[in-house]
Every structure is written in C-alpha cells, then in structure tokens.
Amino acid sequence: MNDFLNSLTRWTVRIVLLMVGVAFFLSLLTVACVLAAFWGLRALWAKLTGQPVTPWVMPMRAASSWASMYQRAGSFGGMTGAAAADKEEGGAPFTPAAGSKRGGILSKVAGEVSDVQAREVH
C-alpha cells in the first residue's frame, strides 16, 4: 500500500509540474503573439500613412552608458595618471586638431587609406 501511494504521489507531482510548464509556455506564446500582432498593426499603419517603419528599440541616454561613467570619473583606460604627470611637468596637454572629430588620433593612418572617399557628415 505504501509503494502504491509513493507512485501515485510521484505521478501526481509530475503531472502538476507538466501542467504548470505547459501553462507557462502558452502564456509566453500568447504574449509573443500579442506583441507580434501589435507590431504588425503598427507597421501596417505606418505603411498606409506613408511613414517609415521604425524598429522598437530600448531607449538609452548617452549619459547613462557605462563608458561615459568612466569618462566622467576621469579614469577611463588608466590615462589619468599620465595626463596629470604631463601637466605637472609642464608638458602640453593633448590638444585635438582643429575641426577634427577624432581629436587627431588617426591623423597618421588617415593618409594611408585610399579606398574611402571622405564626405561631409550632416
């Protein structure tokens, strides 16, 4: 009798866990279908009104990125100590080239590039 109750309990737990898993899977599938239908309607409406279909993206401010956190702290890449030593010794701090987006970092390599045509950024 004890063996029968153990088997019955094991099968009951297995069936209940299987039902919970199926319910969880179906709920995730339902949410995915609702999101897909909503995105499809949004894309259809954009096409009908002549607007571009824009993707859904996670909004993030540039100030909240992890790299900007280190740049604000002044310790990105461990260059703070070298810059402070140059200033104390009277050396000129890094000054970017006038009008340069990259601060003159790639000026040595830029002359070697031949398969790219420069264009104005708008």
Q: Give the SSE order as H and E letters.
A: HHHH
Main β-sheet description: none
Termini separation comes to: 82 Å
Q: Which value, in Å, is the CA radius of gyration?
A: 30 Å
Features of the shown structure:
transmembrane; single chain; elongated; mainly alpha; transmembrane helix; 122 residues; 4 helices; membrane
Structure description:
- With about 120 residues, this protein is mainly α.
- It contains 4 helices and no strands.
- The model has no long low-confidence stretch (mean pLDDT about 75).
- Keywords: Membrane, Transmembrane, Transmembrane helix.
Write the layout of secondary structure elements.
Layout: H1 2-49, H2 66-73, H3 80-89, H4 107-110
Short account of what is shown:
By secondary structure, this protein is mainly alpha-helical. It has four helices and no strands.
